[in-house]
Each structure stands twice: as C-alpha cells, then as structure tokens.
Design a protein that fits this description.
62% helix, 3-stranded antiparallel beta sheet, mainly alpha, 409 residues, globular
Length: 409
C-alpha cells in the first residue's frame, strides 16, 4: 500500500496549502472554527505526566490554581479555556489552558504521548503559545492527510478491472472530495481525532489481508488514542477469530506473540483509564437529542433515525454482512447512550466505508453512506446549521473560511 510519487506530491501540496492558511489565519486558537481543544490536550497531557492516572479520578481543577491577578491580565481571553497553574509549579508565567476543567480527563493515555512534544515545548522552551498551537495544528494536518490517503486507497480508489460508468466514477470522486473537506474542516479546528481513525482504517485493512494479529494491534492502538474507537469493539472478535483460524500464534512465532502482548498492554491501560473515568461521565454536558428523548417511538427524532436505518440493517442481515452489521448495531447502541455528542464525532463513522469495502458487495458502500448521512442529520446535527456543521457539504465551510481570511487581511 505504498503511495506513488504522484500521490505523495498531491498530499504534500495539499498539506502546504492548508499549512499556509493555518500560519496566517487565526491567533492562538484554531484556524477555522473557534475551538481550543488542541490547546487543552497538551495542557491535560502535562497534568497526566505529573499526576498519572489520578487525572481520570479527579477534574483538572483539582490540580490547578487560578493564576495571579497580574498574570491573568496578560493572558488572552479564550472561550472555553480555563487558565490554571499546575500544582507544584514555581511560576505562573506558563499556565495551562484546560477546556472543561471542572470534569475529568476524557481521553486515553495515548493522547498524552501524542501531545508530549507540545508539553516539552511548553515546559522547556520560550516559544509563544501561538507558536506551540500552530505546531500542533501542523502536526494534526500531517495525520489528516494520512487519513485522506487511507480513505482514498482503501475505499474510493477503483480496482484495476473497474467497469463502472463515468457517472458512477464522478459520484465516487465527488464523495471523496466532500469527505476531504470534512476531515480538513475539523483538523483545522484543532481536533486530533484523525489519528485514531487512521489506526481503525489500518485495522480494517489488516482484516482484509486476513492478518488478525496486526489488526488486533491497530485496533488496540486506536482505543489507546481515543475512547470513541470503542465504537468498533466487535472488530476485536473478528480479529481474534482470524488469529485462531490462521494459527498465527503457533510455535516459533515470537513476533506475533510480542504484538499480541503489546496490544494487551495498550488496550489494558486504556480500559483501566476508562473504568476510572466512567463515574465522571455524568458530569459532562448532556446534549444528545436522541438520548434525551429516551428513544421513545412517539418522538420524531427516533423515527428519523429508525426509518432510514431499518432497511439498511435488513439488507446487511439478508446478505450476511456480519462484520459491517455488528459494527453498525454496536455503534448505534454506543452513540445513543452517549451523554455528549459533537459534530466532529462524525469522523469516526468513516471506517464504516472501509468495512463496506471489506465485505466486497456492491450495495455495501450505499448502506454505509445511508448510516453516515442519517446519523449526521439526526444525531450529530446538534442544533447547528446543517449544511456547514454535520453534513460534509462545502458551501458553509468555504464561507466560514472566507470570513477568516477577510479578518486576517
């Protein structure tokens, strides 16, 4: 699956274009939308390296004190960012920006490792906060383009014997273009989710190659990076069955045993953190409209979810697409029980398209698209204008980008 020179050139040019915009649009916050999550991630990572797994037992405010009045006056007023000084720090000149500092750390330990470069820059250099945040966004952009390439390679690239009609090819490339904009939209807004989605795609690709051990390692890494990867928990069962069926851990296969041990380690650390965090999930803002209405069949939201998805589930069951069917059912159960949902969570539905290609049936991609669009409109819509928030259409996205560009000039 090595990229060609032309693919590498296209990815680099795309990254350079968005990196230029990131460097010249926005101040300390994200480039596109007004979020500070990327800022908060390395703030929470600094607390994790100082206090370990206790950050999953107590909120960030338990470890932070407000900066002095003099220091606070010199800090930018960032929406959603609570300024605090880590306990034991000798100075408040480099305070931490923590979003939702009244709740526990909602991210697995892998994010702390992913944010380690920013923690080191914050604690051991004199770089400005804007420079560190720009470094973070540029790093996220690299991973976003890796995800874009995986999405094209594993889902949208036609096979060598492709006999599709020209209109079908244009539809395929058009969908890829919309997902390209969706990935970049949330990456430029400071969300790190693409790295976990990449790991999920690698897990799906390894399942397609019938390599259960490698699939298990990739899936475990995804959970280690983001708890939302638990949407794909059924894939662990399929990966385990592949390991047993192919006898991948037979005699003389120390490498396979080592990868399984690494999978167990990172997955165990992630689940341990999740168990500590679980009692504190009730403290997060509850905004899941479907969940708030308790999935009652007397509400429009429930019927808007059920009516489009029921034919999809029947089709997947009728055609015996067990992998995709089990993941759709489990993901629906998880997302409808989740307290808080946001528009960028939709990125974690992209591996469904990889699973559809894994099934190898013509209608699978259509089924995955129905699941994606239905959840985008019904669950992840979240009260914002549909066409630029939850559904990957470029209109509102480009308008917001133009506004940011005008503000810079």
């Amino acid at each position: 699956m090595k990229p060609s020179r032309r693919a590498l050139l296209c990815l680099f040019l795309s990254w350079a274009f968005w990196a230029f915009l990131a460097a010249h649009i926005g101040a300390s916050r994200a480039t596109l939308y007004d979020y500070t999550d990327h800022w908060s991630h390395y703030g929470r990572a600094a607390l994790f390296f100082r206090h370990g797994f206790d950050v999953y037992r107590f909120p960030a405010s338990h470890y932070c004190a407000a900066p002095s009045d003099a220091a606070a006056r010199g800090l930018p007023q960032e929406g959603g960012c609570g300024w605090c000084v880590a306990a034991g720090a000798s100075t408040d000149k480099r305070p931490l920006c923590i979003n939702w500092h009244g709740v526990r750390n909602a991210y697995p330990p892998g994010l702390a490792l992913y944010s380690l470069p920013e923690v080191l820059l914050l604690q051991h250099t004199s770089l400005s906060l804007r420079a560190i945040n720009l470094f973070t966004v540029l790093k996220y952009l690299i991973v976003a383009h890796l995800l874009i390439w995986l999405l094209f390679k594993l889902v949208f690239q036609p096979p060598e014997d492709d006999r599709a009609e020209p209109g079908e090819r244009w539809l395929r490339y058009g969908l890829f273009g919309l997902f390209y904009l969706e990935i970049l939209k949330w990456t430029l807004s400071g969300f790190y989710d693409p790295i976990a989605v990449c790991a999920l795609f690698v897990g799906v690709w390894q399942l397609r190659r019938n390599r259960g051990v490698d699939a298990m390692l990739a899936l475990s890494a995804a959970v280690f990076l983001h708890f939302r990867a638990l949407w794909y928990l059924p894939l662990f069962a399929f990966a385990g069955w592949t390991v047993l069926r192919n006898r991948e851990c037979g005699k003389g296969r120390a490498g396979a045993l080592a990868r399984l041990a690494a999978s167990a380690l990172v997955l165990g650390l992630s689940l341990y953190a999740f168990v500590l965090l679980y009692p504190g999930l009730k403290d997060f803002l509850s905004n899941n409209g479907v969940r708030l209405k308790d999935l009652s069949l007397t509400t429009a939201a429930s019927w808007n979810l059920v009516l489009p998805l029921l034919p999809v589930l029947i089709y997947l069951a009728w055609t015996r697409q067990g992998t995709l069917l089990s993941c759709v059912l489990w993901q629906l159960f998880m997302v409808t029980r989740t307290v808080q949902i946001q528009g960028w969570h939709i990125l974690f539905l992209l591996p469904m398209f990889g699973l559809a290609r894994l099934e190898g049936k013509r209608g699978s991609l259509v089924a995955a698209a129905v699941v994606y669009l239905t959840e985008a409109l019904v669950i992840f819509y979240n009260g914002a204008p549909i066409f630029h928030y939850a559904v990957p259409l470029p209109g509102g996205y480009l308008i917001d980008l133009m506004h940011q560009w005008q503000a810079w000039w």
